[in-house]
Write a structure and sequence with these properties.
The chain has 439 residues and is α/β, with parallel strands linked by helices. Mean pLDDT is 94; it is low at 1-18. It has helices at residues 15-21, 26-41, 45-52, 100-116, 137-151, 170-184, 208-223, 240-251, 274-283, 302-306, 345-353, 361-364, 367-381, 387-412, 416-435, and strands spanning 56-65, 71-82, 88-95, 123-129, 160-164, 232-236, 255-261, 264-267, 298-300, 312-315, 334-336, 357-359. Helix 7 (208-223) crosses helix 8 (240-251), helix 7 crosses helix 13 and helix 13 (367-381) crosses helix 14. The protein has two domains: 26-199, Rossmann fold (3-Layer(aba) Sandwich); 208-364, Rossmann fold (3-Layer(aba) Sandwich). The strands form two sheets. It has a seven-stranded mixed sheet with strand order 9-8-7-6-10-11-12, sandwiched between helices. Bound molecules: nicotinamide-adenine-dinucleotide (NAD).
Length: 439
């Protein structure tokens, strides 16, 4: 079995059924968001119609000989939403609840995310409906290689570049790269990002999302005239994004007063000792916070974490955490969305009315895809960068993107979420306009 901890975004998998329970069809959310922004931008109806539909949707059936000799047939998807600004870019998700509508929505969000940070990509996403926790490494490898083979004509460094998502990891990306290289007859590292460092994975890619969250938090605090030393932060989720954000923000001088993961959390108004917590989770069962003890660190629940007395709240766990029930109780002045979709649309309205700044996911956690972009550039040029180079370039892109979104929000008197979406949609629409409608 593949160890769950090694799998990117594993815990997020639990959020998917939750979203279903809440009755939210993610693709309907995409369409509603687009209608709102289309009106604001006075976008041509035809262009809006183009943006509402993915350019290409592929469904593949993936037969796999299981370890016991049985043949099981899985359903896989790849949705290529838009390529006006560059090749399709987006992860591959393995989960029992994968649906076509979900993949379509995630593909569209990738288009906006790449556009808001102005990297030369379109958006795509893939998924296989399967339960990877019940599959052996051999079964996973055969499924991955067959899925990629079925999609091969559509993938490529200049066409469509997958990456890890929920329940997929560097090992799976290595298999994708190997399969594509064998079929094309030459080494093809640029076909996928999130590979092992030994195979051209970028240094700093693993930390890029949390580093991006940190840069964005610093930018927003600067705009609000708040000093890092006087700022308190609460972080939900202590996986890749949450733990890196906590570590870097603590290094910058912020007081991290609350952290939590699926096993619960801790609160200390005087600040938690983040290096000590990191040492603990390195060897704790499941790398969870459960069982941590330190003077002054009081246990709290996840619900309590979201409404802690802290200047900044960073949801970095899963979807639909800030809802209409708890939004009225949120005490933070700023929310920086490390996770994808942590705030429901209803909660968003409440936070807006309460004057709480929400830096949206497509901007706040875009450090991950920027890190992927850097890996792709290095793979194409066969020229690896140092981690310092990667971090400096990441900081430049994130700060510049934040400044543009902040400015747009001020000029148009809209929320940061709407401003980010307006900038992104406008960039994609402009690319379509300039390219023209073929023939
Ligand atoms: P991860 O699996 O490394 O960590 C997730 C954390 O959330 C874990 O600490 C887990 O215990 C916690 N968690 C799970 N369920 C919870 C619950 N009910 N309450 C509180 N905590 C809970 O995942 P990650 O890679 O850190 O991703 C976190 C979020 O960030 C996801 O929404 C993901 O889509 C988003 N994101 C990740 C990246 C990336 O590069 N890793 C990039 C962009 C966006």
């Amino acid at each position: 079995m593949i160890k769950m901890r090694d799998i990117a975004g594993a815990a997020v998998a639990e959020a998917i059924p939750r979203q279903r329970e809440l009755g939210t069809n993610p693709y309907e959310m995409v369409l509603a968001q687009l209608d709102g922004v289309g009106k604001e931008l006075d976008l041509d109806r035809g262009l809006l119609e183009i943006l509402k539909r993915p350019e290409r949707v592929v469904e593949v059936s993936v037969p796999v000989v299981m370890d016991d000799g049985r043949i099981e047939v899985f359903t896989g998807y790849r949705v290529q939403h838009n390529s006006a600004r560059g090749p399709y870019k987006g992860g591959i998700r393995y989960h029992p609840d994968v649906t076509l509508d979900e993949v379509k929505a995630l593909a569209a969000w990738m288009t906006w995310k790449c556009a808001v940070v102005n990297i030369p990509y379109g958006g795509g996403k893939g998924g296989i409906k399967c339960d990877p926790t019940q599959m052996s490494e051999g079964e996973l490898q055969r499924m991955t290689r067959r899925y990629v083979t079925m999609l091969l004509p559509l993938l490529g460094p200049e066409k469509d570049i997958p990456a890890p998502d929920v329940n997929t990891n560097a090992t799976i990306m290595d298999w994708i790269m190997d399969t594509a290289s064998i079929f094309s007859g030459h080494y093809l590292p640029g076909i996928v990002t999130g590979k092992s460092v030994e195979l051209g994975g970028a240094l700093g890619r693993r930390e890029a999302t949390g580093r991006g969250v940190t840069i964005i938090t610093k930018e927003v605090l600067k705009r609000l005239g708040m000093s890092l030393q006087e700022t308190t932060v609460a972080i939900q989720g202590y996986g890749n994004v949450g733990s890196v954000s906590a570590t870097l923000l603590a290094q910058e001088g912020c007081r991290i007063v609350g952290v939590s993961d699926i096993s619960g959390g801790f609160y200390n108004p005087n600040g938690l000792d983040i290096p000590d917590i990191n040492r603990y989770v390195r060897t704790s069962p499941g790398h969870l916070l459960r069982g941590y003890t330190a003077r002054g660190a009081a246990p709290i629940s996840n619900e309590e974490l979201l409404t802690l007395q802290a200047d900044v709240l960073i949801p970095a766990a899963m979807e639909c955490q800030i809802t209409e029930e708890n939004a009225p109780e949120v005490r933070a002045r700023v929310i920086v969305e490390g996770a994808n979709g942590p705030t429901t649309p209803e909660a968003d309205l409440i936070l807006e009315e309460r004057g709480i700044y929400v830096v949206p996911d497509i901007l706040a956690n875009a450090g991950g895809v920027v890190g992927s972009y850097f890996e792709w550039v290095q793979s194409l040029q066969a020229f690896p960068w140092t981690e310092e180079e990667t971090n400096a370039r990441l900081a430049r892109i994130m700060s510049q993107s934040f400044a543009e979104v902040w400015e747009c929000a001020r000029e148009r008197s809209v929320t940061l979420r709407k401003a980010a979406l307006m900038l992104a949609v406008n960039r994609v629409a402009e690319a379509i306009r300039r390219r023209g409608i073929f023939p």
